[in-house]
Design brief:
heterotrimer, A alpha/beta (356), B alpha/beta (259), C alpha/beta (180), A: 356 residues, alpha/beta, Rossmann fold, 7-stranded mixed beta sheet, 5-stranded mixed beta sheet, 15 strands, C: 180 residues, Pyruvate-ferredoxin Oxidoreductase, domain 3, 6 helices, 36% helix, globular
Chain lengths: 356, 259, 180
Amino acid sequence: MEKELRLMKGNEAIAEAAIRAGADGYFGYPITPQSEILEYLMEANPMNTTGMVVLQAESELAAINMVYGGAACGKRVMTSSSSPGISLKQEGITYIAGAELPCLIVNVVRGGPGLGTIQPAQSDYFQAVKGGGHGDYHLIVLAPASVQEMADFVDLSFELAFKYRNPVMILSDGAIGQMMEKVWLSPQKERSKVAPDWATTGKPTTRKHNIITSLELDPNVQEAFNEKLVRKYNKIREEEVRFEEFQCEDAEYLLVAYGTSARVCQKSVQLARQQGIKVGLLRPITLFPFPYKKIGALAGRVKGMLSVEMSAGQMVEDVLLSVNGKVPVFHFGRMGGIVTTPEEVVENLKSKFLKG
Amino acid sequence: MAEVTGIKEYIKPENLVYTRTKLMTENVLHYCPGCGHSTAHRILAEVIDEEGLQSETIGVCPVGCSVFLYNYIDVDVQEAAHGRAPAVATAVKRLMPDKFVFTYQGDGDLAAIGTAETIHSCNRGENILIIFINNGIYGMTGGQMAPTTLEGMKTATCPYGRDVKLMGYPLKITEIVATLPGTYYVTRQSVHTPANVRKTKKAIKKAVQYQKLNKGTCFIEIVSNCPSGWKMTPVQANKWMEENMFAKYPLGDIKTPVE
Amino acid sequence: MTEEIIIAGFGGQGVLSMGKIMAYSGVMQDMEVSWMPSYGPEMRGGTANVTVIISSGRISSPILRNFDTAVILNQQSLDKFENSVKPGGVLIYDSNGLTRFPVRKDITVYRIDATEESRKMNSPKTFNMIVLGGFLKVKPIIKLENVIKGLKKSLPERYHNLIPMNEDALKRGMEIIKKV
């Protein structure tokens, strides 16, 4: 079957891609700037076509716990929200990580802290990649930089989630959620009819009863479980790092940016090169696992790096870890819902590295 | 201790008067002596067995003493975060509508931290059975005040007795959910005498049938005791429950289907 | 070819939908497009703007500081975006309600009295199509037939009977736009 071309908002692309990926359920609660996901699904009414369940929950807490219940049945389930709502979901997310359940959580980030602004930001990086909820755990975090990737990463997320029995987050932002671009949509996948052997589907006489839990009172058993999680995260670190290079071959300075900022920085690279400054861009696609090795390798070839994020400087800490002191690393970014412009990035790069 | 001789002679099928319920596992229950949870577990397991539902059942048990229900009843079980069981069960039932789905929740879980999930699941008329164990106290965490703690009743966090002016009134959440159009069958029972055990079991059986018919939410409150939390012997606790808890939480059907 | 456009005016003037039709039209012509709206409370009655990029190649930043063309439909937008037009670029404005006019000499300025024209045509809803017609006259980057196809794509089927009216408005816009 051929792919279908549409012009869509990022949020709509996620919703349509979820239906086409054969998702079993979506549970959400409205919040700007991502309400189009729930709205689109309600209008599409996939219960009548694929049988996908779509439900508006009474709160973000309820929604993420619905995801827990669905995932525990071995279903392909997801939720979406924006920053304040994702904070509310953290309890459920850590339970999901602790019970090793596969699911997709979409965060269309807006500026904070608190109620903040409804405009785009990238200030939830730490929350997404360093934990978010309590306990030692990691999400697999994918950062789309286009409407196409908003669509493509839905299926990829489910694939990774089930491969590792781990929650996956798509870390987007209000700009990509609200913008329209061309998107090639994959053909409709059938919903899976087989449940994984660990799922709670009703106990037949042929197996022991399945228990989904994150509770363990014996510290030795709990520690052994934590060690198992660490081994899983290390495997993910080894096998799932994804990134994109843009004019890095001859670059003297490197921009590191993900999502919307990476799109802005592509233009910055062009503008800088027009001015004779050899700049390249490394775009992490997975934020966990982070491309430490790749950035570390590039550190041996460039004079300095600028981490560009719509935040006070979060990913820059991982860039610093990658570079490990080899070259200077700076942060540049606007906050409060303001998207950095390509020109500003070039001006900042020049002021940091080319003074005088 | 008197020598027991020839006991093996008595272990014969025709002498069998009591046995472990088939769907109860061999794990030793961690519940305190005299606690109502054990009996409630047992009759739930009996109903699942008698209805032939073992392979069709998914239980959801959130934080509370009964979070370990999965150790005792041989069905698929999901442990849930504190208060969230009705949300979890909502998704389970919607994604697997042919299964028998129940939650098993305490008073702190269902009527304090999980009030929103309780109300909204009932309001949507989710086709699930909610079993609500009300003993007026937080048992697992060591006897703190619950939303259903009686006026004047002493707990670790109201050591001078519940002062309703400062701490609010005992919450009759079962009466509240009965007002919602989504609930189909709402009843309040107990498991402290054989007669009450039989009535509760009958109520669970009814709920199973209603769920099969997609009638909406069935809600069974079981008024129970907490000898440890109440600092009483099991016999004292049951007596105190009859005299005090039943006065506030009278037993009987609150909402019955209009046939 | 890359054309970077900002359309700015009041919410309710059809700013976002005009951008959407431009983007759809670009798709019909096999171009890459991006449509980045201002969103949130300002959509409801306040100022609204949308950045549209149409390109024969991959589009980098959907958010821009400088534009090839600014389509300006109220005073606030003129004040905000006049200086964002690249030197040598184009500014198109509707004079309705303006008290201060464009002053830059290093850009080409066009005026289109679309508000007045839509009133004359007795169809205020085609206002944004008149403006779009004017834009296409100045920047013929998309063929009219592809714009009509774009209209069909962006309008729900129940409104397809309005397409001829919109086509008339597009053509009228092409006629009435004039260089200042």
